[in-house]
Amino acid sequence: MTSTQQVAAETFGRTETAMTLETLETPCLVLDTERMERNIARLRTRLDGLGVSLRPHLKTSKSAEVARRVMTTPEGPATVSTLKEAEQFASAGVRDMIYAVGITPSKLARVLELRARGVDLVVILDNVDQARAVAEASITSGMRIPAMIEIDCDGHRSGVAPANQALLLEIGQTLAAGAELRGVLTHAGDSYKGGGPQAQERFAEAERAAVVEAAQFLHASGLPCPVVSVGSTPTAHHALDLSGVTEVRAGVFVFFDLFMAGVGICQIDDIAMSVMATVIGHQREKGWIITDGGWMSLSRDRGTSKQAVDQGYGLVCDIEGKLYSDIIVADANQEHGILAARPGSGAQLPDLAVGDRVRILPNHACATGAQHDAYHVVRGTSHTVEARWSRFGGW
Amino acid sequence: MTSTQQVAAETFGRTETAMTLETLETPCLVLDTERMERNIARLRTRLDGLGVSLRPHLKTSKSAEVARRVMTTPEGPATVSTLKEAEQFASAGVRDMIYAVGITPSKLARVLELRARGVDLVVILDNVDQARAVAEASITSGMRIPAMIEIDCDGHRSGVAPANQALLLEIGQTLAAGAELRGVLTHAGDSYKGGGPQAQERFAEAERAAVVEAAQFLHASGLPCPVVSVGSTPTAHHALDLSGVTEVRAGVFVFFDLFMAGVGICQIDDIAMSVMATVIGHQREKGWIITDGGWMSLSRDRGTSKQAVDQGYGLVCDIEGKLYSDIIVADANQEHGILAARPGSGAQLPDLAVGDRVRILPNHACATGAQHDAYHVVRGTSHTVEARWSRFGGW
Fold first, then answer.
1. pLDDT, tens digit, for every residue of A19-41?
2. Domain ranges of chain A
3. Which fold has domain A3-31+264-390?
4. Looking at CA atoms only, how far is residue A311 from chain B in angstroms?
5. A13 touches chain B (CB under 8 A)
């Protein structure tokens, strides 16, 4: 047991007889599973209607307990962003994963170890150097590594432009020489810009069109392309037609966050994860309440700073998750959060004493979650902590 | 052993015969101890000249190995920002610590546990509610808890204004009734604004004047005030006179970072900590190199975004730590970093192939370090990894 776990275990030891929101050590992560289950059901229903399968991205939760609930079966499918996630979820029984960050030659040994354990781990790539490394590792090991070609649908990050047929063909043929071409995959980075439902429908269609174009070209060239994968939480919630697509990847939909609310993909009261903090003081003449929830617990993510509504370091709720009107974490130091009325709102600070607790909705669930080693699970407005679900970090 | 440690141990298992920068898994944290030792020596020499002691803030490193080198003795003194740090460093032998975040009643049980282990852990506070809770816990436990009054020298965060004598007296008398008034403490948050050496000299003098004024008032009121503590890395490096001050706290000076370089407190080549990442692809027509060093490894800290020189998510060096001219991490996703020339610089991207490695200097050492569970120790331009120093997170 690490010291992190020891402290956590001690925390629970102390609160064994009364595991409630009042007795947890702060700052800590609170997960409302009622909201989480609603978020999962909403996307599943939507994708069922479109006739595609869901391959949830587990980078948001990094938790076997959350993974089990968000996946459609205990064995997957799932998406991961690190080999550490692949190894952890493999140990929890997941057998079908895409490692959706471009592979490097030095990481292939760990990929092969997982495949040797019976895990169908698929890598992704967008250049011939990577394809050659994957083919060579396949030949050397005697294990055909499946790889997908990453497609660039909007100039946002990595990937091959779907019109670059020469490169698609060269990568496909290089892989076919020793590895396995499993398909094509893209991610609509543009969808994070927002722009309303019609813009999201266009982003979703651009995502679909790019990857289907590449898949059709590979098929026409005599190469296999069984999997056609798209994904982002905004486009997953707005795609009207996914013809030619076999699966959708999405991650943050499981918890949602203020950024996604700002993009219009969820309501504030869909946000399932919060950071609980304790009041440590006031600066009344400045209109501030000081808590022990600084950026170390909230993360440095300020993703809403360029949205229409800047939520500071987070939006403040009471201990039950009920929103205070227009109270935000206006600033944060490493272990201090400064609660204040949103500028211009005229809102009144709540009457909170030293020792009182608040819950803060995060800008970005993936970033905030990563600052913690566990979720403390509640349902709705209950104060009872039903479970502690551990989460991991690292690579 | 947790899975984090297992993976780390496996990483080292693989590289046992050749522990070099080329064989570490990426992304990972690299610490150049030559630079670190230079940074420590510089501040020690300065404070020796001013006749005050150094109480380093260990929140930056969260590592027993770094703590041992930055403290003046193995037992301290030291400053911490969480009780987890206090517990971890107590287990490593540290006996003299200030927990420099306002105490809450619910945290006093852990404070008492540490004091019962022989650790002189001091709490801080700025209101009567906290003082009453500390006095009551002292009486109930039969252990006098030492507490310092936090002074607000610049309206930046917490603390009692030094001119608020009524509040100082009430807190001091409340503590004296059962606990121990150990002294006064302040932090010049203003010093992070920069402004050049003369501005920093003024911030340092404001910090000194505020806390000495409060100490003199407490003494004149017949209350004890043996410790008079100031501290921030910028003011520690600029104070011209510290009359009346007994100790200086500073944290980030041990590693430095781009933010501190932007404030003018260090040079770029003083920055001792970097994130090593591997090239996973290119988008040549966009002038981008893509790496596996995204914001999960760099942190979301964009502290230089409001400075004169915006360093993006970090400044890019080669594997030996030699700076590429004007190449920054222009954008980052969770596990992707986008390297590009600084806008307007006309710099050329280095000729890096898939699999090549770079080292990225961080905006904020405290935030970037917190994304990792270990430092990989090198000296200067050597590729040999001399040690793996673990670090912890959590509360």
1. 999 999 999 999 999 999 999 99
2. 3-31+264-390, 37-254
3. Lyase, Ornithine Decarboxylase; Chain A, domain 1 (2.40.37)
4. 16
5. no
